From TrEMBL:
Keywords: Cytoplasm, Cytoplasmic vesicle, Endosome, Lipid-binding, Membrane, Protein transport, Transport. Critical regulator of endosomal recycling of numerous surface proteins, including integrins, signaling receptor and channels. Binds to NPxY sequences in the cytoplasmic tails of target cargos. Associates with retriever and CCC complexes to prevent lysosomal degradation and promote cell surface recycling of numerous cargos such as integrins ITGB1, ITGB5 and their associated alpha subunits. Also required for maintenance of normal cell surface levels of APP and LRP1. Interacts with membranes containing phosphatidylinositol 3-phosphate (PtdIns(3P)). It comes from Geospiza parvula. GO terms for biological process: endocytic recycling; intracellular protein transport; signal transduction. It comes from the Eukaryota. It is found in: Cytoplasmic vesicle membrane; Early endosome. CDD domains: FERM-like_C_SNX17, FERM_F1_SNX17, PX_SNX17_31. This is Sorting nexin-17.
C-alpha cells in the first residue's frame, strides 16, 4: 500500500472553536481520510500501549506554540514517514488498532453515519448481488455477506476479493484497486459520487492450479465460469475461430468445467488487463497495454514506427519496484485546492535483462498502484507456494452480531453464449524480456513534491543463471 500525506488544510473548528490544521492521508493516490495531529497522537499512544515503545516508530513531538507554515510542512513530512513506517511493519500495519483507526477516520471524513444500507456488488456476468450491511462494515464483512448471499462455502471465500472498478464506454471495467482491510467499501464507493464506480467480485489468486479448489463447489464453479466468459467476451483472453467454436459447443452443453479447462490453455487466461498507458521501454513515449498474470507483466507495445510488439517481464526477474506520485506545483499555499491537482503515477521496476545487466522500466499510468498491488500479490502467492502453504482461508463467523447474514441465497446466472471472436484478437509479433527478487517490506519516502514507495523482491539474483534476452524470441533459461 502506498501511504502519503501530500497536503494539509486549515479548517474551522466546530462551534466557533479555533481553526486547526488537518492532514490529508492518501492511500494508493486517493484521499482516504482527513485527521488532526491529536488523532494521530492518540493512535501512536495506543500502539505503544499494545506493542511497546521499542516496536513503534518515533512520533513527531508536540509543540507549545502555534506552528509556523514551515513547521506545519515539517510535521507533515514527519507524520507521513510515521504512517508509512507503521503500515510497513508486519505487526503494526496489520493490527486491528491501526486498521480500525483508518476505517473510523474514513467514515468521519466523509461524514457518513453508521446505519443499515443495501449495497450492490457486481458479478462478472453483470448480475448484481444486493446485501444488507452497515455503512461501517469493513471489507471482510462485505465479502462475507456477498459469499453468504451466494451460498459460497467459507473455505472458498478467501479465493475471492472485492475490487473497485470503473465502467467504461464499451461495458468493460477499468480496475481502480482491490479493496483493503482498512477501508469501508460502502464509504469508498459512495464518496466518489459517480455511478460509473462499482464494486465487483472476482477471484483473487493468479495460479490456475487453484481453480481446482474453487470448482469443487457449485457456486465456486459458477463464479469462475462467469468470470472466464466475461474475460473472453472483453478480449482479455485471446481465442481463434476454432477455439471459439469449441468453447461455444461446450457452453451449449453447459459443460462448465470443460469450458474452464479449455480456457486455461488459452493466451492471457487469468490475466488482469489494464488501460492503455505509456512506457519508456523499448523507447521513451511508447504506448502500451499492460496485462498482469502468470507471474509476469505482459506488454503489448506500439513502437514509434507504429509496429506492435509483445513481450513479458517475469516477476521472478524483478529486483525491485517502486511507485511514485507527483503533483504539479502551484503558486497557492499548501493544501489551498485539495484533491483538485492532477496526480501523476508511475510504476518503475528494475529488471534483470541479462546475467550482469539490470535496467529500469517505467510505466506511467493512473493504475500504477493497482499494478504494484498485482506484483505484490504474485510475490505473496509464490512465497506461500514455496513454503508449502495454501491460500485456502477459512472465514470465521462473527458471533457478536455485528454482521447480519441474509437467510436467502442468490443463484449465479449463466452468461449468454459467446459472440463471434474479434478478428483483431489474432496473435501479434513477439518481443521478450524477463526478471528476479529480494525480500523486505516496501520502504517509502518523500522527495520534494514526489511521493515514493518502493519494494524489493524476495528472490535473489544469485539463485538462477539467465541467458541474454532477445526481442524476437522467447527468453530461455541457461
Amino acid at each position: 500500500m502506498h501511504f502519503s500525506i501530500p497536503e494539509t488544510e486549515t479548517r474551522a473548528g466546530d462551534g466557533g472553536a479555533a481553526a486547526y490544521v488537518a492532514y490529508n492521508i492518501h492511500v494508493n493516490g486517493v484521499l482516504h481520510c482527513r485527521v488532526r495531529y491529536s488523532q494521530l497522537l492518540g493512535l501512536h499512544e495506543q500502539l505503544r500501549k499494545e506493542y511497546g515503545a521499542n516496536v513503534v516508530p518515533a512520533f513527531p513531538p508536540k509543540k507549545i506554540f502555534t506552528l509556523t507554515p514551515a513547521e506545519v510542512e515539517q510535521r507533515r513530512e514527519q507524520l507521513e514517514k510515521y504512517m508509512q513506517a507503521v503500515r510497513q511493519d508486519p505487526t503494526l500495519g496489520g493490527s486491528e488498532t491501526f486498521n480500525s483507526f483508518l476505517r473510523k477516520a474514513q467514515q468521519e471524513t466523509q461524514q457518513i453515519p453508521t446505519e443499515e444500507v443495501v449495497l450492490e456488488v457486481l458479478l462478472s456476468n453483470g448480475q448484481k448481488v444486493k446485501v444488507t450491511i452497515l455503512t461501517s462494515d469493513q471489507t471482510e464483512d462485505v465479502l462475507e455477506a456477498v459469499a453468504s448471499k451466494l451460498d459460497l462455502p467459507d473455505d472458498l471465500v478467501g479465493y475471492f476479493s472485492l475490487f473497485l472498478v470503473r465502467e467504461t464506454k464499451d461495458g468493460a471495467f477499468s480496475f481502480v484497486r482491490k479493496l483493503q482491510e482498512f477501508e469501508l467499501p460502502y464509504v469508498s464507493v459512495t464518496s466518489l459520487h459517480n455511478p460509473e464506480f462499482q464494486i465487483i467480485l472476482r477471484k483473487s489468486y493468479w495460479d490456475s492450479a487453484y481453480d481446482d479448489d474453487v470448482m469443487e463447489h457449485r457456486v465456486g464453479l459458477n463464479l469462475l465460469y462467469a468470470q472466464t466468459v466475461s474475460d473472453i467476451e472483453h478480449g482479455w483472453i485471446l481465442v481463434n475461430k476454432e477455439q471459439h467454436r469449441q468453447l461455444k459447443s461446450l457452453q451449449e452443453k453447459v459443460s462448465k468445467k470443460e469450458f474452464i479447462r479449455l480456457a486455461q490453455t488459452l493466451k492471457y487466461y487469468g490475466y488482469l488487463k489494464f488501460d492503455p498507458c505509456v512506457t519508456d521501454f523499448p523507447e521513451k513515449g511508447c504506448h502500451v497495454v499492460v496485462s498482469a498474470g502468470n507471474n509476469e507483466l505482459n506488454f503489448q507495445v506500439r513502437l514509434p514506427n507504429e509496429q506492435i510488439k509483445e513481450g513479458s517481464f517475469k516477476v521472478t526477474r524483478m529486483r525491485c519496484w517502486r511507485v511514485t506520485s507527483s503533483v504539479p506545483m502551484n503558486n497557492g499555499p499548501s493544501g489551498s485546492s485539495p484533491g483538485k491537482s492532477e496526480v501523476k503515477l508511475e510504476l518503475a521496476f528494475e529488471y534483470l535483462m541479462s546475467k550482469d545487466r539490470l535496467q529500469w522500466v517505467t510505466i506511467t499510468s493512473p493504475q500504477a498502484i493497482m499494478l504494484s498491488i498485482c506484483l505484490q500479490s504474485m510475490v505473496d502467492e509464490l512465497m506461500v507456494k514455496k513454503s508449502g502453504g495454501s491460500i485456502r482461508k477459512m472465514f470465521r463467523r462473527r458471533v457478536n452480531g455485528a454482521l447480519r447474514r441474509s437467510d436467502s441465497q442468490q443463484a449465479v446466472k449463466s452468461p449468454p453464449l459467446l459472440d463471434s471472436p474479434d478478428a483483431s484478437w489474432e496473435p501479434m509479433a513477439k518481443l521478450s524480456v524477463s526478471c528476479v527478487w529480494v525480500h523486505q517490506r516496501p520502504q517509502a519516502k518523500r522527495v520534494g513534491e514526489l511521493g515514493l514507495s518502493s519494494m524489493t523482491s524476495p528472490f535473489s539474483t544469485e539463485q538462477a543463471h539467465f541467458c541474454q534476452p532477445a526481442w524476437d524470441q522467447p527468453l530461455q533459461l541457461c
